[in-house]
Amino acid sequence: MGTRALLLVNPHARQGQNSLSEAINYLKQLGFDLLEESTENAEQIPSVIERHQHEVDLAIVGGGDGTLNAAVDALVTSQLPLGILPLGTANDLARTLGIPNSLTKACDIIAHGEVRRIDLGCVNGKYFFNVASLGLSVKITQRLTKEAKRRWGVFAYAATALQVIWESRPFSAEIRFNGESVKVKTVQIAVGNGRYYGGGMAVAHDASIEDQRLDLYSLEIKHWWEIIPLLPGMRQGRHTNSGNVRTLNGQEIEVYTRKPRPINTDGEITTYTPAHFRVIPQALSVFVSPRKEL
């Protein structure tokens, strides 16, 4: 009998059904006994994992960062090891973990890679892999349509971001960490657990999903055009060297705003301020390439 795996797939993911069918056949050739589930609604994913957690040895999730975010809470509860088939638009968690977009190579990692424990972020009780943020990224999420992501891929993020940046207005917030408090006027606060988010941007140049810390940056610009010089550095996480970008890191961070503001976790709006962020060290097992630095 092969290794028993729950295969959860987002049927609306950007990669086509033909590629997915080839990946499923390849997983079976690699010796996996698959219990296949396809969910039209991401909210159904936790209950599917809970229902089958004692029947399988691991969970394989096929989709993008939003699908993975929908699964993460149930994965923590069940402690099933996670295999990833990157079927989404940005695939930022896969990028952080060094998992290629090639589905056959991703299958090989699940079959022959090593299992590593990674950290998770948590905000107001909701787990996240990559980044939780408020401000510009929330507006991008609200405006970015599934159709645009499916048609234009990561270019949809860039086009939508430019629109949102042009309309951006600073808001007031209070950040508390390590017994200190700072009040800011900002257009975006991002709290990262992993390295990549938003289609390949880095939260900090030295961020790691194994460093047992959260990395925060706050974009404290007054005019929309001040963000333009920061954009190239955001690909490598070097924007944090700018004078109008505040940075800090720690295991727990709190953010308060005058009125509740939505918070985006891994590309999905899941909670609101006031926000209590914390890192959960070595919270989940995932399949990665052997000896890959995370």
TrEMBL record:
<dbReference type="InterPro" id="IPR017438">
    <property type="entry name" value="ATP-NAD_kinase_N"/>
</dbReference>
<keyword id="KW-0444">Lipid biosynthesis</keyword>
<protein>
    <submittedName>
        <fullName>Lipid kinase</fullName>
        <ecNumber>2.7.1.-</ecNumber>
    </submittedName>
</protein>
<dbReference type="Pfam" id="PF00781">
    <property type="entry name" value="DAGK_cat"/>
</dbReference>
<keyword id="KW-0443">Lipid metabolism</keyword>
<dbReference type="InterPro" id="IPR001206">
    <property type="entry name" value="Diacylglycerol_kinase_cat_dom"/>
</dbReference>
<keyword id="KW-0067">ATP-binding</keyword>
<dbReference type="GO" id="GO:0016301">
    <property type="term" value="F:kinase activity"/>
</dbReference>
<keyword id="KW-0479">Metal-binding</keyword>
<comment type="similarity">
    <text>Belongs to the diacylglycerol/lipid kinase family.</text>
</comment>
<dbReference type="InterPro" id="IPR016064">
    <property type="entry name" value="NAD/diacylglycerol_kinase_sf"/>
</dbReference>
<dbReference type="Pfam" id="PF19279">
    <property type="entry name" value="YegS_C"/>
</dbReference>
<dbReference type="InterPro" id="IPR045540">
    <property type="entry name" value="YegS/DAGK_C"/>
</dbReference>
<dbReference type="InterPro" id="IPR005218">
    <property type="entry name" value="Diacylglycerol/lipid_kinase"/>
</dbReference>
<keyword id="KW-0594">Phospholipid biosynthesis</keyword>
<dbReference type="InterPro" id="IPR050187">
    <property type="entry name" value="Lipid_Phosphate_FormReg"/>
</dbReference>
<keyword id="KW-0460">Magnesium</keyword>
<feature type="domain" description="DAGKc">
    <location>
        <begin position="1"/>
        <end position="127"/>
    </location>
</feature>
<keyword id="KW-0418">Kinase</keyword>
<keyword id="KW-1208">Phospholipid metabolism</keyword>
<keyword id="KW-0547">Nucleotide-binding</keyword>
<keyword id="KW-0808">Transferase</keyword>
